[in-house]
Each structure stands twice: as C-alpha cells, then as structure tokens.
Amino acid sequence: MTDTLAIRIIHSPIKTCLKYTLLGLLVILLAYQLFLLANVILYRFINPSSTAFMRIKALNIADDVSPKILYNWSDYEQIDKDIKKAIIASEDSRFTQHFGVEWQAIIDAYYFNLKHENANKAKIRGGSTISQQLAKNLFLSQKRSYLRKAQELVITYMIEIIMPKQRIYELYLNTAQLGERTFGVTAASRVYFKQDVSKISSAQAATLAALLPNPILYSQHLKSSYMRNRINTIQARMPLVSIP
C-alpha cells in the first residue's frame, strides 16, 4: 500500500507537468495561427513589402550582390491580360472555380512522386493551386515536409475565406518567383523583355508562365525545344481559361 502511494505521488507531478506542457504547446500553436490570420487580413488590404520566401532567398545571396531581390508592385489593372491568362493556363486552370485546394491533384502528385522516388528519379510533380503557392510564398519556406504542407493548407483556407479571387491572384502575380532574384511579373517583364508589364505580348506572357515550375532552371534554357513546346502549349490554352 505504501509503495503504491509513493508511485502515485511521483506520477502526479509528472502528469501535471505533461498536462501543462501540452497545454502550453496548444496555446503557442493557436497564437501562431491567429498571427497568420491577422496577417492574411492585413494583406487583404495592404500590399506586402516582401514575403517570407523573398527574405529567405535574400539571406542566401552573396553580400556583394545589390539589390538582392528584384521586386516591384503593380496593381491588378496595370498587369496585361495575357499574363493573367498565361499563368492560370500554366499553373491552375480551375483557379476561379475551386476553393483553394484541389485534393485529387494533391493525391495524384503524392503517388507520382512516390513512384519516382522509389525508382530513384528526381522528377517531382506539384499538386498546389495558385492559392496554395501564395500561402507558401507569403508565410512559409520552400522546404518539403508534411508539417509544412499541413500549415500551407490551413493558410490557404484562411486566404480563400478572407480574400476575393482577384486579390489572391493580384498578390500571386506580384510575389511569384520568376528568376534567381526576380519576383513578380513586373520585375520579370523588365528583366527578360525590357518591357512594361502592361505592354508585353502573348508570347512573352506565355514565356513568363512557362518559368514558374522551376524558374531558376528554366530561365537558363529559354531557347531549348522543351521550353518552346511549353510556351506553345500555354499559348494554346490561354483562350480557354477564365481570369478573376
């Protein structure tokens, strides 16, 4: 009886400690979600001066490079319609129809990547919508993990609930990476074509859209047959998509 009582006395503080530790972690997690929600609400009305991905990228660029990030904002109405169509045609043809997440695309991408991983192939397929990519660009890193993916989904639904589609797309067009140091279609139009974002051609718009799956790699091979085929395919799809 005495031994049992002693065990209970020892276990009681341990249980209490675990209880408050878990409660503390839950409070921290909830506070972080509220912080993200507050920022999503803020970005509904205010244009970001930078994104998490831009800041992480800037840290990895040599100190003697200036500016480290090429980023200029353009309002939605200032961006050429062909760019809007090209990027939706390339990245998310059902953008105006879904509520932020295409679950079947995520499942298909998971099994595709698992198959290629088992075969020791480096090819990776993404299942993210434009809204998911925006969530990742604004708040998260580019590292792949199930935890980051789960957080990305939570932020995506926050974005879809709080922002209209046009605002989501405006933010994406201005913050998507389109080169080693280039973010957004405004900076990309100047870097690649020496052209204002409101005046680029259909072919130029398709070229920018073709960079998005892997802008650092693809920007080095713009004249390859693979990229020409991608650009032509995107141009053919452009009349078929709707924009917000």
Automatic annotation (TrEMBL):
It is an enzyme of class 2 (transferase). Its main location: membrane. It is found in: Cell inner membrane. The chain crosses the membrane at residues 20-46. Belongs to the glycosyltransferase 51 family. GO terms for molecular function: pentosyltransferase activity; peptidoglycan glycosyltransferase activity. Keywords: Cell inner membrane, Cell membrane, Cell shape, Cell wall biogenesis/degradation, Glycosyltransferase, Membrane, Peptidoglycan synthesis, Transferase, Transmembrane, Transmembrane helix. Pfam families: Transgly (PF00912). Pathway: Cell wall biogenesis; peptidoglycan biosynthesis. Peptidoglycan polymerase that catalyzes glycan chain elongation from lipid-linked precursors. Residues 72-238 form the Glycosyl transferase family domain. PANTHER family: BIOSYNTHETIC PEPTIDOGLYCAN TRANSGLYCOSYLASE (PTHR30400:SF0), MONOFUNCTIONAL BIOSYNTHETIC PEPTIDOGLYCAN TRANSGLYCOSYLASE (PTHR30400). InterPro entries: Glyco_trans_51, Lysozyme-like_dom_sf, PBP_transglycosylase, Pep_trsgly. Its EC number is 2.4.99.28. It is a single-pass membrane protein. It catalyses: [GlcNAc-(1->4)-Mur2Ac(oyl-L-Ala-gamma-D-Glu-L-Lys-D-Ala-D-Ala)](n)-di-trans,octa-cis-undecaprenyl diphosphate + beta-D-GlcNAc-(1->4)-Mur2Ac(oyl-L-Ala-gamma-D-Glu-L-Lys-D-Ala-D-Ala)-di-trans,octa-cis-undecaprenyl diphosphate = [GlcNAc-(1->4)-Mur2Ac(oyl-L-Ala-gamma-D-Glu-L-Lys-D-Ala-D-Ala)](n+1)-di-trans,octa-cis-undecaprenyl diphosphate + di-trans,octa-cis-undecaprenyl diphosphate + H(+). GO terms for cellular component: peptidoglycan-based cell wall; plasma membrane. This is Biosynthetic peptidoglycan transglycosylase. GO terms for biological process: cell wall organization; peptidoglycan biosynthetic process; regulation of cell shape.
